[in-house]
């Protein structure tokens, strides 16, 4: 399997997101101020959505190999680490300075989505030119 490392990373990310969500619901509820709990839960939500998106790209890439989708996966992986990771640490430690990292993670996640859009447009254009040549 060509993307075994990415599949493993996505699986681990999904598992961490579920564990973090359960931790927030069962342990942090009532232990953290509402704004910190909400920040933690935002990190969980964004991590899970991007994990699911990674799985979708990996499935698509398995049957339609395209250059550039590795960049999408990398942008999302680093984006989740910076965005969700900083929210988790900030909520658990109260270190507000980490909040400066969070937007960089968000920008990387957005860049991943834009890169995916460009890749999808190119894939469609390539498919049209290939069918026109047949």
From TrEMBL:
Species of the source: Billgrantia ethanolica
PANTHER family in the record: TRANSMEMBRANE PROTEIN 256
Protein name as catalogued: DUF423 domain-containing protein
Localization of this protein: Membrane
Broad class of where this protein is predominantly found: membrane
Swiss-Prot/TrEMBL keywords: Membrane, Signal, Transmembrane, Transmembrane helix
UniProt cross-references to Pfam families, sorted A to Z: DUF423
InterPro entries: DUF423
Entry keyword annotation includes Membrane: yes
Transmembrane feature ranges: 46-62, 69-91, 97-121
Domain of life: Bacteria
UniProt membrane topology term: Multi-pass membrane protein
Family membership: Belongs to the UPF0382 family.
Signal peptide positions on this chain: 1-24
């Amino acid at each position: 399997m060509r993307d075994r490392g990415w599949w493993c990373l996505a699986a681990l990310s999904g598992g961490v997101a579920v564990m973090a969500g359960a931790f927030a619901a069962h342990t942090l509820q009532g232990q953290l101020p509402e704004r910190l709990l909400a920040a933690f839960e935002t990190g969980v939500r964004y991590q899970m959505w991007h994990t699911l998106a990674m799985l979708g790209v990996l499935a698509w890439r398995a049957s339609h190999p395209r250059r550039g989708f590795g960049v999408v996966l990398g942008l999302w992986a680093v984006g989740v680490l910076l965005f969700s990771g900083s929210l988790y640490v900030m909520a658990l430690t109260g270190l507000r300075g980490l909040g400066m990292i969070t937007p960089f993670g968000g920008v990387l996640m957005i860049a991943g989505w834009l890169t995916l859009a460009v890749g999808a447009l190119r894939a469609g254009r390539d498919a049209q030119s290939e069918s026109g040549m047949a």
